[in-house]
Design a protein that fits this description.
Belongs to the class-I aminoacyl-tRNA synthetase family. InterPro entries: aa-tRNA-synth_I_CS, Gln/Glu-tRNA_Ligase, Gln_tRNA_ligase_bac, Glu/Gln-tRNA-synth, Glu/Gln-tRNA-synth_Ib_cat-dom, Glu/Gln-tRNA-synth_Ib_codon-bd, Glu_tRNA_lig_a-bdl, Rbsml_bL25/Gln-tRNA_synth_N. Keywords: Aminoacyl-tRNA synthetase, ATP-binding, Cytoplasm, Ligase, Nucleotide-binding, Protein biosynthesis. It is found in: Cytoplasm. Among the domains are: 169 residues, Ribosomal Protein L25, Chain P (Beta Barrel), CATH 2.40.240; 124 residues, Ribosomal Protein L25, Chain P (Beta Barrel). Helices cover 27% and strands 21% of the residues. It is built from 16 helices and 25 strands. It has a 7-stranded mixed β-sheet. The two termini are 55 Å apart. The relative contact order is 0.09. Bound molecules: adenosine-5'-triphosphate and magnesium ion. The site of adenosine-5'-triphosphate has 14 residues, from α3 and β8.
């Protein structure tokens, strides 16, 4: 293949705002474009629709779609739906939503099941070439014959069947003549190979179960390695990117691509032409990179599924979950996740990323973009007794201290305000800078207040503070600049809207929740304080938020209006992340 202008194609990514990324995969892509090996890049993201996507998948998505985007190529979304037993249309919908939410779109939406007919013809071709055989060993026998890492396997007694017998049996497998598990179609490669994946791996197994898309027509289903390699070849994928655990499968991947040779046998693609599915058969190259691992999380679909099934979390989109649906509900933004993935980078080195890197990316994104609001999570009333009864006024606040383009908002103020209970101490600890009896503090943007009287109930609990607002310290006045020790936030009691505020924290309190030593499981590492719900008060401009709108609640952290439950007259906010890393100190 020749490239019209390899230099141009290999130039910097299309998004001029982002600096060019220089990981080893992008380096390969640049070289392949510059040398003219490919004139366009094609990638794919191939999820199995057996669960929701998690943060690990975000890394693969940003890589697969990101490379296509940066180098003017195309990326397909391909559902690997070769196992009809595990699929659910809800997963299929959510996966598409998640990819779009992250900011990507696919060139084409495909399913491995689109190719069932091609896979079948390809398998018949392998049989005809003497490269595959029908094996009658039971699954236990197959295991026994396979050998181990230190011992070679043994040939199946069915390995030398004639091509005619194999073809006949394989066709009868497809016709439904045999029960599940009684026969497989196996590649004929090498039972003595040091790579166990090459010891005559299964290509097809019998499963009498209709397929959610392909319907009743099939009772044999292709195995992952075979289907995946051919799917890539069918779609003309140039760089098939996957995680390191597939490194040992690469020789099998290459074997499938080469022995079937779709590019050299376009007739095999005839069933796709009938379906109107364009294709550009090619010889794809598999490249592996290391998985994303983050401490304090579990990331396998199996464990995430168990958390939901056992009711340990409130569903797939629980804001504590590491699914993309959960992170989204928690208040993670697509740009924060993309920033995180960029920071983590792409390599072949397995590592565990510190959770603070994920939270740091979110803080950084929200600090720059989230408007500021005031909210009080544990309210205590402060009455400014020197203001006239019924006094109210409107103050003007900047939405963002560093970004004027976010504009101003009106914040109502009145004689009675809610302040944070923990901003008052009768007996202050050393170094205290907030309210004490007789002491002064600045009410953010409203003036300087003093506490004169502490009102208590019969049990001695503080239920109200009564005090004074310095009339010479109002916004704009000379006296507003008078030095006082601390500044606290507040909301007008008369105007604030009561809100449910969900104070989320990390789901696991152990750095390695997957640690199963001493008979433990990740269930034993759940953080009992990962969710606390309180009733607080928010200023009207926070209550008016649309679902999924993020704010910094001053001095409290970053919060998002819950995607599902938030209403303007009954606001619900989730804490996305605290203002500072409180875990670093604990560790
Ligand atoms: P899990 O192991 O969590 O069940 P999976 O690998 O079975 O995930 P798939 O749906 O097969 O999930 O994955 C789709 C793509 O996402 C694959 O290319 C896979 O390599 C990639 N992927 C999955 N987990 C991670 C991860 N932690 N980091 C990077 N890529 C991942
Ligand atoms: Mg998988």
């Amino acid at each position: 293949m020749t490239s019209p202008d390899p230099a141009a194609a290999a130039a910097a990514p299309s998004d001029a705002a982002t600096p060019a990324r220089h990981d080893f995969i992008r380096q390969i892509v640049r070289e392949d474009l510059a040398s003219g090996k490919h004139d366009a890049i094609r990638t794919r993201f191939p999820p199995e629709p057996n669960g929701y996507l998690h943060i690990g998948h975000a890394k693969a998505i940003c890589l697969d779609f990101g490379i296509a985007e940066e180098f003017g190529g195309r990326c397909n979304l391909r559902f690997d739906d070769t196992n009809p037993a595990k699929e659910d249309p809800a997963f299929v919908r959510a996966i598409q939503e998640d990819v779009r939410w992250l900011g990507f779109d696919w060139a084409e939406l495909r399913h491995a099941s689109d190719y069932f007919e091609v896979y079948y013809l390809a398998a018949e071709k392998l049989v005809a070439q003497g490269d595959a055989f029908v094996c009658d060993l039971t699954p236990e026998q197959v295991r026994e014959y396979r050998g181990s890492l230190t011992e070679p396997g043994r040939n199946s007694p069915f390995r030398d069947r004639s091509v005619e017998e194999n073809l006949d049996l394989f066709r009868r497998m497809r016709a439904g003549e045999f029960a599940d598990g009684t026969r497989t179609l196996r590649a004929k490669i090498d039972m003595a190979s040091g790579n166990i994946n090459l010891r005559d791996p299964a290509l097809y197994r019998i499963k009498h179960m209709p397929h959610p898309i392909a319907g009743e027509g099939w009772c044999i289903y292709p195995m992952y390695d075979f289907a995946h390699a051919l799917g890539d070849a069918i779609e003309g994928i140039t760089h098939s990117l996957c995680t390191l655990e597939f490194e040992d499968h690469r020789p099998l991947y290459d074997w499938c691509v080469e022995r079937v040779d779709l590019a050299g046998h376009p007739a095999l693609l005839a069933p796709l032409v009938e379906k109107g599915l364009p294709n550009v058969a090619a010889r794809p190259r598999q490249i592996e990179f290391s998985r994303l691992n983050i401490n304090y999380t579990v990331m396998s679909k199996r464990k995430l599924t168990q958390l939901v099934a056992e009711g340990l979390v409130d569903g797939w989109d629980d804001p504590r979950m590491y699914t993309l649906q959960g992170l989204r509900r928690r208040g993670y933004t697509p740009s924060a996740l993309r920033l995180f993935v960029d920071r983590v980078g792409i390599s072949k080195q397995n590592s565990v990323i510190d959770f603070s890197v994920l939270e740091g990316a979110l803080r950084e994104d929200l600090d720059a973009h989230a408007p500021r609001r005031m909210a009080v999570v544990e309210p205590l009333k402060l009455v400014l007794a020197n203001l006239p009864e019924g006094h109210e006024e409107t103050l003007s606040f900047a939405n963002h201290p560093k970004d004027e383009s976010l504009g101003m908002r009106e914040v109502p103020f009145s004689r009675e305000v809610w302040i944070e209970r923990e901003d008052f101490a009768e007996v202050p600890p050393k170094g205290w800078k907030r309210l004490v009896p007789g002491g002064e503090v600045r009410l953010r943007g409203a003036g300087i207040a003093r506490v004169d009287e502490v009102v208590k109930d019969d049990e001695g609990n503080v239920v109200e503070l009564r005090g004074w607002l310095d009339p010479e310290s109002r916004p704009g006045m000379e006296g507003a600049n008078r030095k006082v020790k601390g500044t606290i936030h507040w909301v007008s009691a008369q105007h604030a809207v009561q809100a449910e505020i969900r104070l989320y924290d990390r789901l696991f309190s152990a750095a390695d929740p997957d640690d199963e030593s001493e008979g433990r499981s990740y269930r034993d590492h759940l953080n009992p304080d990962s969710r606390r719900s309180v009733r607080g008060w928010v200023e009207p401009a926070a209550a008016a938020a649309a679902p999924e709108q993020s704010f910094q609640f001053e001095r409290l952290g970053y919060f998002v209006a819950d995607r599902v439950d938030h209403r303007n007259d009954a606001p619900v906010f989730n804490r996305s992340v605290s203002l500072r890393d409180t875990w670093a100190a604990k560790a």
